[in-house]
Amino acid sequence: MQKGMHTDTERCVRAVQSKDARFDGWFFTAVLTTRIYCRPSCPAVPPKPANMTFYPSAAGCQQAGFRACKRCRPDTSPGSPEWNQRADLVARAMRLIADGVVDREGVPGLAVRLGYSTRQVERQLLAELGAGPLALARAQRAQTARLLIETTALPMADIAFAAGFSSIRTFNDTVREVFALSPSELRSRVPRGNAGAVTPGVLTLRLPFRAPLNPDNLFGHLAATAVPGVEEWRDGAYRRTLRLPYGHGIVALTPNPDHIACRLTLSDLRDLTVAISRCRRMLDLDADPVAIDDQLRTDPVLAPLVAKAPGRRVPRTVDEAEFAVRAVLGQQVSTAAARTHAARLVTAHGDPVDDPEGGLTHLFPSPEQLAALDPESLAMPRTRRTTFTTLVGQLADGSLNLGVEGDWTETRARLLALPGFGPWTADVIAMRALGDPDAFLPTDLGIRKAAQELGLPSTPAALTARAAAWRPWRAYAVQYLWATDSHPINFLPV
Predict the structure, then answer these.
(1) Among 46, 144, 407, 490, which lies 20 to 30 A Cα-Cα from 121?
(2) Could you confirm whether 12 is annotated as catalytic?
(3) Is 69 a catalytic residue?
(4) Out of 12, 24, 38, 288, which one is annotated catalytic?
(5) Which residues contact 249 (CB under 8 A, 6 or more apart)?
(6) Considering 24, 271, 288, 444, which one is annotated as catalytic?
């Protein structure tokens, strides 16, 4: 699958006729006769090829006057994998829009973060996606509104503002235009008993993904490295606190065969879209596992590992700055020691939160909070203390930005320029915080051990040369290599 797939009409038609769910989110099918748009896997009888046209985004379909199919619900497709595997302007813009930047800061704020003019950003998005940043944000608001309408008992006025609409009238008009139903009609279609919880601020929803998804290393890694007070594994779910733009939240994520069950408790419902986006990003749910595994299978050494447990994802993070701090705390110490260091910081400097279920007590401290602490209070060697204070200082004053809009290569170079930052620390941050799908860890002890056991070169330079065939998916190759070990990160907790 490749950039601009919607322009390959023949391939798109074949995907629609075979109802291939792997292509959901890659493109959308707009039907000229009915003025409805669908996901490729729509269960309805496929239209004639002459009546199909294809768009790269739901917003593009809406801009062209098409409304969402009531049967296949294209607005609930997994996101396009392109935005997490590319580092160009359009991909960085899409990551920011998903994180709610247009709703909070407007298009000028989006452009400033990207370092381009507003006109340039709008022109590139329109050219590739058939919709500008306002239309893309509007489509996202409509999706959030539908989710709230169908999964909560909130009044419509509360939903309108929680979804990011500036007025109830705009909310009503947008919902009618996108779904061809009024908000109350949408709610009336939900089967009784499925209308969602009435507990204020608590939402239960399903996060879709492209199959296959192997949860073992994904949730195993998050659980094994969980920082007490901030994260825990409980009753088959990974739970953690979230620092969000308007407040805070607690999320519980449970792996199921066809979706991830998500239970969110939010102090401010305006954070819903951002919370969902960050959880999807942490679990790498928009990845295209078929394309990734097909590439890695071409290597005879990796092929048996992929065949044994296909669909491995890269465990990422909901907070890039938090992960960078934890990466420094984990330098040259065990997983248990790193958790202990982080837990001390959380208890001393994190904001307390109230968890109705108990277990979670704090938000992870912000860079500003960590930059204000006394360096002498840190129980670590002086050189690592310098690494820590330099990192949090630059994160706090904005001279180092690890946000989703960052350029991976440039950010990695800036990290390597910090005292105490070697290739392993920079690369693990690139892989798990920045989201670079091609980040590689040739100096990692677990990788070198796996390489030796599998008959791969074990020196960093030779292994890097050998891994060139795995590009652009080396971060996923890392997951398969790590999984050859019996470390707890590779297994779902019992």
Answers:
(1) 144
(2) no
(3) no
(4) 38
(5) 241, 242, 264, 265, 266, 267, 271, 275
(6) 444
